[in-house]
What does this fold into?
Amino acid sequence: MIRLNLFLLGLLMVCAMSVVTSQHKSRKLYSELQKEAQHTKKLDVEWGQLQLEQSTWAMHSRIENEATRKLGMQLPGSNRTQVILPRGTAVARPKVGDVD
Amino acid sequence: MNAPTQPRTRQRFVQQLKLERWRVWFILAGLMILFGVLIARGFFLQIMDEGFLQQQGEARYARTLKLEANRGMITDRNGEPLAISTPVQSVWVSPRSVKLLPPGQKRPAGWEPSSEKEPVPMSREELAQLAKAVDMPVKVVESRLSTSRKSGDKPDFVWLKRHMAPQDAKKVLELNLPGVYAQTEYRRYYPAGEVTAHILGFTNIDGKGQEGFELTRQDMLAGKSGSRTVIRDRRGFIVEDISTIIPPKDGETLTLSIDRRIQYLAYRELKAAVEANKALGGGIVVLDARTGEVLALANTPSYNPNSRARIDPARRRNRAVTDLYEPGSTMKPITIATALESGKVTPSTVIDTTGGAMGMAGYTIKDTHNYGALTVERVLVKSSNVGTARIALAQDREFLWQHYDAIGFGQPPRTGFPGEASGKLRAWKTWRPVEQATMAYGYGISVSLMQMARAYQVFATDGEIRPVTFTKQVAPLPGKRVFSPEVVREVRLMMEKATQPGGTGTRAQVVGYRVAGKTGTAKKVGVGGYTEKRYVGSFVGFAPVSDPRLIVAVMIDEPHGDSYYGGTVAGPAFSNVMAGSLRMLGVPPDAPTDNILLPGQDEPEVPEET
It folds into this structure.
């Protein structure tokens, strides 16, 4: 009988200790989770700001300016453009004749 | 205590009870009454006055803090941001908890408040520091700090400066001044600025949509702000949460059908055209011909939605959707398609326009030239008013009205935009013959540019019209048939010819693509009838003709340059926008790159007078 009691006591101690540890662990993890959640929010904000920055840099007016002024680029004229369709043929000349 | 004495004591007690009965009852009743009063008072406080008292009690310690929800993003069809909210700091002060010291005095180093209600003294130097940190004159800051209510006591909350950059606000808080706090708010940024101003609109300083989609989709974008109720001590420190925190629900992302690249191109070209023609303003709409999605919508003059300065209401007007104009010749393809649909004419039917004028009920319908006899096709290509009027007069009024109505005239296009104009289309029973004739070439009927672009869907598709939408569609909405495919094919070819030499829209041609469209030049209605010298030039068209993908409608309001004809003022803008958009969308060309045919040097350009 005493042996059983001792065994149960031991079991109780183990359980008590594990309750304490798990409680401690869960608190620690929870605070970590909170920290990570805050981090997520911060990153979200930063993402928004970076997106804003990116779209400001990638403004079409700016790109156009940079390309034509700084890089000296220009759209090729029609006399320097050759259009090839997927079958490798040139575009056929349409007939804009009278409908009647 | 010994046992034998006990009964005797009881006996004596019994003997003492020989009192008057009424005294007992009197005491008992008195106690009962007092008890009753107590219960009544308790009832009164707990049940009758409970709400009031609870509220008063909470007002003395509890504060509900609003947790701001992030306003949803607005993106274009490719996910590029068009409107983003980012957090900013707003600095506020509590005048009640601050007392400004006279100049020269300083707060003692070990100062402690003697009671909860004593305000913290603030020296002049600190005031100057604060003013410098928020970049405001000292006087303004001082007046904010000494704000008082009508009742004489000072308020607990006054904005000092709103929407500061987070790093600036941090500097303010680092001064560690009494009664100065910051709160996170969201500020809206529009990376594309004035280019998308009319579509998106803007929000006010409290983040509420005021115009455009910021207004119509306010509920969806705003989300739901959360709250937490806390107990705060006198100095504003949070002591305890007294209810569960309701987390904020962020707004949803709104994906529009707009393509940012096309939008920018359209705005740029429109602005250039308006400036080149010294016009009052203008509008442009680019539609996807297959789905009815709006790819771009721009107006000039525009405004910068990022600036908080007062915006001139005239600049805020979304001309393409809310302004009405008389469409002029851009109406003719619709009239002619209706006539072909009725079967009363064919493209080769000859119409007599001899004289270039036609008198009706005291009104003269005029052409710029005397064209003589024209086929129906030539009537459209030359944009003859007399010819179109004669064709329309041969039709049944009700039949014409049915088609004008089916194509969306006289009813709002239901794009989900605030303040859409529905235009004017009178009931056919009230039409007089002269009105039937003028309406055929676009006078006596008013439309918005959006309606006109939508109407041209019938020519860009097989005669079907779809609802115009600003939200990205997964699959096109079902269309409604207005014209038969055969009729549409014929009219489409006529409209293509209108852009060829001999037509009015030669400047609308695009390298590598077949283009069809119609010019329009309409006199504006002023006080007492049509005005001279005030016109609206427009061009509505689509490309490529072999398989239409895009519809572009351009409207230039009151051009005062060398020319006011739709073909010359709006045609080039149409051509540039169409060329750029087709290239961006990767639409295969359907014509060789030398397809542009310009009229010869000696051949004058064909202007049209409606």
